[in-house]
Amino acid sequence: MSEADTRGQGGAPPSARRALPLLGPDAERAPRGGRAERADAAQNRRRILAAAADLIATRGVETLSMDEVARVAGVGVGTVYRRFRDRAGLLYAVLDDRERDFQTAFLQGPPPLGPGADPLDRVRAFLHALADRTEDQMDLLLMAESDSPDARFNDGSYELYRMHLETLIARIRPSADAAYVADALLAPLAANLFRHQRRTRGMSLERVKAGLDDLVAGLTAS
Fold first, then answer.
1. Count of domains in the chain?
2. What radius of gyration, in Å, describes the C-alpha atoms of the chain?
3. 201: part of which helix (H) or strand (E)?
4. Which domain does 71 fall in, by range?
5. pLDDT digit string, tens, across residues 29-84
6. What is the CATH number of the domain that holds 47?
7. What 3 state SS string does 160-197 have?
8. Which residue among 92, 132, 172, 188 has its CA within the 20 to 30 Å range from the CA of 54?
9. Contact 94, 46 (CB under 8 A)
């Protein structure tokens, strides 16, 4: 399977709950009607999402309010509600926005995360980058993954991650069960386990990444 094969039609099956199209970092999503977004509306969207992301990072997802987001973004609160309907819609939009940047980085960005590096280095870089993203958005990801027991696996992003890793694993160790190993490498990055390790057990982010490196090292074992 080639690198292009991992992208498919936007990098995820159309039946997935949030199958996100792969876009460039400055691309704007068209509204549901399919019409192009006005420049002022696109600017407001970027400001609102940036404000929400900053507030989540500094204060936590639990305290996020639409009024505060509007104040920080410098827009009317009605604009925030018209665009995202409610707090849950805003939170998922923040996730989707960051997800597009992440997908662009590992599918099209510079090596070792992007194409052009040794497959083993790419697997390590991908898992480290995903650990950083999980750290930055831990509570938000936990909320998204708590929708249902299968929420994490029904997400189009997870399928893209799995396919990406499966492709690289098959190149590193052709005899491996690449599909199983890909799931196994993603399992430690589930938000609930990640939060338990970081906040309950007190593991540092560096320790988590070192543990992921130990798992990846098994791919080269004789």
1. 1
2. 18
3. none
4. 4-220
5. 433 344 556 888 889 999 999 999 899 888 888 888 999 999 999 999 999 999 98
6. 1.10.357.10
7. HHHHHHHHHHHHHCCCCCHHHHHHHHHHHHCHHHHHHH
8. 188
9. no
